């Protein structure tokens, strides 16, 4: 599916519109009127799963939605029932990771602070494979086939940087990431040279935070995804979604206040980091001096 048509995002757009249309009515009151359970109303407004377009039509007709909004909402409902390419990798990606990839598939921009590893969108295949090999040492029960499908999914994600409409990617990378071994010297050198090359793309802004730079706050890695208007469907813009990954989970943070705080922190990190040109020079220097 094209980047402009993620079912994950379409479900969220539709859910936001349904919550807005319900207004001050309680979910229970609406449910009683249309003959649904309150749980079904909650499911429709959660954006986590899709309902058949015919059922969405019944709900928006109750709300008295007129054209052209009615047609746009039914279009969203139809799009929301689609299947994203990432769902073919459900055996290798957790439900939270699938949600993340689905959001990324239609995001306009992604701001990333990476304190531990090279961002997934910028990893080489060898880097990914060595990360997974290290993971299998700790969790040896992961089948090789699942590992291979994880690698395939990671490589597929990277098309967002080159397929139109391209993702606007801004990364602040801690210098320590380039010094932390993943694989042998060849893997690390190739990874760093790949970073330098990708950083020249017009839609990629890559900055390195040197080890000697002081920052006022400290936190783990996170990603801030932003979304544009409703594209062909005409739906309203979605709010930012912040994703922070842990060992066993992927936390999604939403809400204007919380996501704004993450934006402020990202801006502080970006201001403290080297500009893109000097960052690229440092990346190449480390590739030669440390991983030669």
Automatic annotation (TrEMBL):
CDD domains the record matches: HTH_XRE
All residue ranges annotated as the HTH cro/C1-type domain in the record: 17-70
InterPro entries for the chain: Cro/C1-type_HTH (IPR001387), DUF5753 (IPR043917)
Pfam families for the chain: DUF5753 (PF19054), HTH_31 (PF13560)
Name of the protein in its database record: XRE family transcriptional regulator
